[in-house]
Each structure stands twice: as structure tokens, then as C-alpha cells.
What we know:
- It is a multi-pass membrane protein.
- It comes from Streptomyces avermitilis.
- By secondary structure, the protein is mostly helical.
- Helix content is 77%, strand content 0%.
Amino acid sequence: MAIDTTSSAPVHEPQPPLDTRLSTRDKLVLFVLCAAQFMVALDFSVLNVALPVLGRDLGMSQSALQWAVTAFALPSGGFLLLFGRIGDLYGRRRLFLTGLALFGTASLLATFAWDPASFLAGRALQGLGAAAIVPTGMSLLTTTFPEGPARDRALGISGTLLSLGFTVGMVAGGVLTDAFGWRSTMGLLTLFALIVLPLAPGLLPESRTPDRPRLDIPGAVTVTGGLLSLIYALSTAAERGFGGTDVIATLVAGVLLLAAFVTVESHAEAPLVSLPMLRRRTVAWGNLGGLITFSMMSTVVFVLTLYLQETLGLSAFETGLVFGVQGVLSAVAGANASKVIGRLGARRTLVVSLAGQGAFVATLVALGDGGWSVWLATAAVSLASMCHLGAIISYGLTVTSGVPDDEQGLATGLVTSTQQVGITIGIPLLGVLATTSSDLLAGVHTVLALDAVIVLAAAVLIAVGLGRRPATARARPQGRSRRRRSALGRPATTRSYESSTSSRTRRSGSSPSTVTVFQCRLFMW
Length: 525
């Protein structure tokens, strides 16, 4: 008997091309959100090259210059989790606008600062505004644009602009400082806020979490107070030593508050941080990698800025060009990161990237006071930054891969907090060793050597920690293991990874995971 097999093959209807065009209103919304996020990214770097000039103008010693960076990073890291949750509960648009207004006002205060205290107050308020802008801005972007081509395109545009923030800030900071003085760098941020703030209320829709869980106030108080106390203690101790009463008191308070936070979160109905998630091997070791790469690279940028201007006598503009080369090469590395991660996987890429970052930073110990050192500094910091970017992308993927869809928001918060805390603690811990040294060049050598050792040691620890596979993973069939590695190995910037994430989200009916597509791009700057 003949068997008809013509109907057994599936019929594939041609699919129309996906429409990724954005309406005029969508473009305006995207402009507002991207401009606000770009403004915050700019603030992290625009002042770096102006620090020596700023210190001389306001009468700040070299040892006090670290506070120009720490005063911003401290509140932006300490309040990030709290503000992210407040935005979810009480309105992201409302908190976003409040953060914009605060950031603009603080930038104006910093522009016209008359002494170190007024300047640092402006920087601290900028950090507070940034802590409100960053999480709510990301949430507004993903809730405004529907899942699919429109969101993919919006995330791509936003990620690209954010990746340019650091480079533009360095170059613009040098140009503005040489032409108009350091105050113009803060004035640029004020101008950004004045452009964005009037447009935002009429364009951005309000959004909040539908079920409105109760705000974890005890957790918010303990983690925010603990981070603020601990970072203040480390910053002050690095400058004056650990013998001061205020240092001991704030250090003890920070440790006790963070210990209390762990206890509070273990019993909270809607915790700020999921403790079971922290026990995941990939989450714990991945975040350690993120903490190390951010803290140590921010230290390198800080001490090299002082070295290039104070030891080699470069102008702010010339210093900006050095870091501009770094930014361009980092962007090239970001564009090709998918090939490396696709070949090695996210975990191995994280380890290799950290090892490369530490090795290239170690070569900076050879810096001297001759003109040739400019070329060594440019080459080494650029190569270290390329590895740093690989570590950023791979640690974000390591942390979030395998996390259930309904916990991706918590994973995103951890990734973001790791970045902010890393930037905050690096300079107080190591950078001040250079600023308090009687010989700046010797102090720079000490900092860079310690920096390299810490990064290389972290690479070894993370390789061991991530290399241990649980029994269930060892027992998994070969085919499934290969598929799992492919999922971990393919970065967020590839279309197939975005598509698989989107389809998984649609099947589960939960909110989309934005970290795999957007968050890792956000950290490129």
C-alpha cells in the first residue's frame, strides 16, 4: 500500500519583515530617556581630567581629591536598590522626574561652588539624583516599548549611546577644562538637565508594579546605612588611618548594619535582595568579578589622571585624548565581544578578561617621568580597558544566566549595585595611597602594583569557584550540556540570544528580562 508523505513536511509560510520603525513620539521618548542616562554616564568621567585643576582652584589637597569622585559614587551606589524599589511601587515616572530635577539643581550648585564643602555637597546631591534616574530610566524604557522589534531597537540605540558616555566625558572634560575651566564640566551637566526636564513630563507614561508589595523599609535602612557607613570609614581611614574615633565608629556601624540587613532580608516578604539568589554559584562569583573589575579599573583611571598631569605635565585636553583612545578601543572590543564569548563562554571569558586586565595594569608599574611613558600609559590602559569591557559583559551574563524570569529583576539590581559599589570603593581603598604619598610617582607605582595583584588573584579565585560544577550538572547528558554552554556563551548583543530570551518570556508570561539585552550594554561605559 502506498503511503502519502506529502503532508508530513511542515509548510512554512513566508513571514513579513519585522517593522522596527519608531513613531515620532517613540523617538522623543527614547531621546529623553537616553539623554538622561547619557548625562549620568557623562558625570562619571567628565570631571576626572579636571581634578588637578579643580583642586588648585578650590584649595583641595591631592588626598582630598578622591572625595570629588567618592561624594558622587557614595549616594549613587548606596541608594540605588532603595530608589529602584520605590520607583516600582510608587511610580517610576515620578521618581525619574524627581531625580532629574535634583541632578540639575545639584549640577548648578557644583558649577558655582565657592569652596570644597559646597562643591562636595553638589556632587553628593548629583549622586542621589543619579540613584533615582538610573533604575527608573531603564524600567521606563522597557515598559514604554513593547516586547519585540521596537524594544530591541530602542535598547540597541540606548546601549550604544551609553557606551560612548565615558569616552565623550573624558574628551569633553579635557576640552572644556582647557578652554573654560573646570566649572564648565558641571555646567554641561546642568545644560543636559535643562534640556531633558521640560520634555519628560509630557512624554513619559507612568508605570508601577501592579501588585504593589510592601516596601522593605528595614532592609532599605540597613543596607543603605551600612554601605554609606562602610564606604565613609574606608575613605577616611585611607586618608587619616584607622585610629580615629569616627573611623572606628562608622566601620563598626557599617559591619553591624550589613549583618542586620542579611538577617532582615531572610525574613522579609518582599526583600530588596534575594538571599537564596546570592547563594547561586554563578551569582556570587560573577558579582565578585564585577566588583573587582569596576573597583580596580576606576582606581587606574584616577591615579593615571594625576600622574599624566602632575608628573608628566600634560594638559587636561591631552589627558582626555589619552583616555579617548582607551574609549575607542574599548568600543571596538565591545563590538567583537560576542565572538570571544561565543567561543569561550561567559564564565571563561570573565576569567580570561580579568587576567588580561591585571596583566596589562602590571605593565604600568614601569611608568617613569620621561615622554615615552605617555605611549606606554596609552597602550597599557587601552588594552586593560578592552579586557575590562570583556569582564563587564561576561560577568553580567554569568550572573543572569539560568536565573528564572521572575527573578531577573532582582538579578539586574545586583548587577547594577555591584557596579556602583565597585566604582565607590576602589578609589578610597587604593587611590588615596598615591595622593597621600610624598612622592607621587612612587605612590602611583604602589597603587598600580596592588591593583594588578588584586585583579589577578580574583581571576584565580573565580576560575576555581566557577570551575566546580554541581553533581546535577556533571550528570547532565552531553547534548543538553552543550546546549546549556551555548546559552551561557552567547552574549546579549546577539539576535539569537535576544530572541530566545523573548520567546521564553512570552511563554512564561512574566516580565521580560532586560538585563541580557540592555544591562550589559549599559555597563560598557
